[in-house]
């Protein structure tokens, strides 16, 4: 699996990178500034994106990449307001930090991949918007 991580929390990035690489996944650490360009060229399966960088423009640009990567949003528990706002803008799953067990990261990735494959988050948001 090809994974891009965009997160300013170096402890989380280090732990996540070690975890993914232990399964022979390819991992790139990227800045938010060049994420779209890198994602279009590399075509990752998963983007792990800190909620602090999850703007509507960035998430919309990720939606347009073919094939669309799954988007796993991350944020610290103390910033739940920012995490919730980012998740409402897009993304397939939300992982709250700190992550104490690798199993938590694994579970979040599996849910994000499943939702991205089925477009579940997008369909739910579309139904809510259409009924309003």
Please provide a written account of the structure:
There is one protein chain. The chain is α/β, with parallel strands linked by helices and 132 residues long. The protein has one domain (2-131): Rossmann fold (3-Layer(aba) Sandwich), CATH 3.40.50.2300. Helix content is 51%, strand content 20%. It has helices spanning 10-21, 35-42, 56-63, 80-89, 102-118, 120-131, and strands at residues 2-6, 26-29, 46-50, 70-76, 93-97. A five-stranded parallel sheet has the order 2-1-3-4-5, sandwiched between helices. The radius of gyration is 14 Å and the shape is globular. The model is unreliable at 122-132 (pLDDT under 50).
Mean pLDDT rating? 88
Instruction: Please estimate the helix content.
Output: 40-55%
Radius of gyration: 14 Å
The CATH level-2 architecture is identified as 3-Layer(aba) Sandwich
Order of strands across the main sheet: 2-1-3-4-5
Per the CATH scheme, the topology name is Rossmann fold
Q: By helix and strand content, what is the structural category?
A: alpha/beta
Mind describing the biggest β-sheet?
5 strands, parallel
CATH first level: Alpha Beta
What is the fold's blueprint, element by element?
Blueprint: E1 2-6, H1 10-21, E2 26-29, H2 35-42, E3 46-50, H3 56-63, E4 70-76, H4 80-89, E5 93-97, H5 102-118, H6 120-131
Parallel strand pairs: 1-2, 1-3, 3-4, 4-5
């Amino acid at each position: 699996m090809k994974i891009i991580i965009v997160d300013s929390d170096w402890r989380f990035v280090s732990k996540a990178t070690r975890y993914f690489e232990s399964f022979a996944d390819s991992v790139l650490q990227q800045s938010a500034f060049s994420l779209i360009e890198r994602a279009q060229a590399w075509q990752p399966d998963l983007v792990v994106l800190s909620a602090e960088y999850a703007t509507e423009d960035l998430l919309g640009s990720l939606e347009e990449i073919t094939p669309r990567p799954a988007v796993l949003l991350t944020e610290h528990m103390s910033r739940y307001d920012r995490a919730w706002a980012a998740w409402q803008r897009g993304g397939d799953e939300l992982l709250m930090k700190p992550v104490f067990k690798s199993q938590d990261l694994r579970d979040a990735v599996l849910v994000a991949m499943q939702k991205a494959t089925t477009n579940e988050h997008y369909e739910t948001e579309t139904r809510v918007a259409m009924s309003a």
